[in-house]
Structure formats: C-alpha cells, structure tokens
C-alpha cells in the first residue's frame, strides 16, 4: 500500500508542477498584450449589440441609412488625452458573414457589455449581419480614417 501511495503522490505532484508551469507561461504571455481588449495592432475582439443611438453626446444627426456606433464609457474617452472619440470611425468585420465589413461613425457612449463590445444602430447591424437581428457574437473592429464625404 505504501508503494501505491508514494506513486500517487508523485503523479499528482508532477501534474501540479506541469499545471503551474503552464499557468505561469500563460500569465507571462497575457502580460505582454496591451490592455483594453486589443492586440498590438489595435484590433479589438468583442460582440456587436443593437442600440437606439441618439448622437446627442457627439452632436451628430443620425440618419436612417447611416452606420453609427456607440462605445463603452471606458473606450469612449482616451485615458491619456481625456478626449472623447466623437466622430472617429471604426471598421467592423463579421467573420460569421463571410468577413463582411462596414465603417461606422462613433456617436457616443452605450451602456452595457465590456470595453471591447460595440453598439450599432439597426442599419449598421443589419448590413453587418446580412439579416435583421439584435446581436452578433465575435466581431473584430479597429479605428480607421473616416471615408471622405
């Protein structure tokens, strides 16, 4: 019985050591990524939700056919400059719809979600999804230059 117990303790200790090393490596790799849910190129991964955006926070007149986005409060204000992201543009890609991409204008803050989630008006979400829905999982987005009008 003593031999079985010794073997069991050795196997468990060996497994814990391997687990500890794996956790340590994962923590080290994670610490190298920038904060805010983006990779080193500034590409964010998150979800897109429907929101009844008003545009009041950025003084933007919203049209039925335009594409508009609301950001989380944490993402809306630049922590360094304290400036808002009003009127910035983001490119949004939906891999579930053949990498369909749209560009939307930031019009304010939307509540809910995480820093990397975005909130779109109905026209933008429908175009991105290819159908009339309220939510898209696992989109990617990044800041881009706004298209010339």
Automatic annotation (TrEMBL):
Key words, A-Z: Signal
Xref: InterPro entries: RlpA-like_sf
Keyword Signal: yes
SUPFAM superfamilies: Barwin-like endoglucanases
Entries under Gene3D superfamilies matching the protein: RlpA-like domain
Spans through the membrane: none
Signal peptide segment: 1-20
Organism domain of life: Eukaryota
Coiled coil: none
Keyword Cell cycle in record: no
Protein name: Barwin-like endoglucanase
Organism encoding this protein: Coemansia guatemalensis
């Amino acid at each position: 019985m003593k031999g079985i117990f010794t073997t069991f303790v050795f196997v468990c200790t060996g497994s814990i050591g391997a687990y500890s090393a794996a956790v340590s490596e994962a923590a080290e790799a994670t610490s190298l990524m920038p904060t805010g849910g983006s990779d080193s190129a500034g590409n964010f991964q998150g979800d897109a939700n429907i929101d009844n955006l008003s545009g009041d926070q950025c003084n933007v007149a919203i049209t039925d056919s335009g594409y508009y986005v609301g950001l989380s409060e944490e993402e809306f204000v630049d922590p360094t400059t304290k400036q808002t992201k009003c009127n910035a543009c983001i490119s949004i890609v939906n891999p579930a719809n053949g990498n369909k991409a749209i560009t939307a204008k930031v019009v304010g803050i939307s509540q809910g979600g995480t820093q990397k989630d975005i909130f779109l008006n109905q026209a933008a979400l429908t175009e991105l999804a290819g159908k009339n829905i309220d939510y898209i999982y696992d989109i990617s987005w990044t800041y881009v230059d706004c298209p010339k009008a």
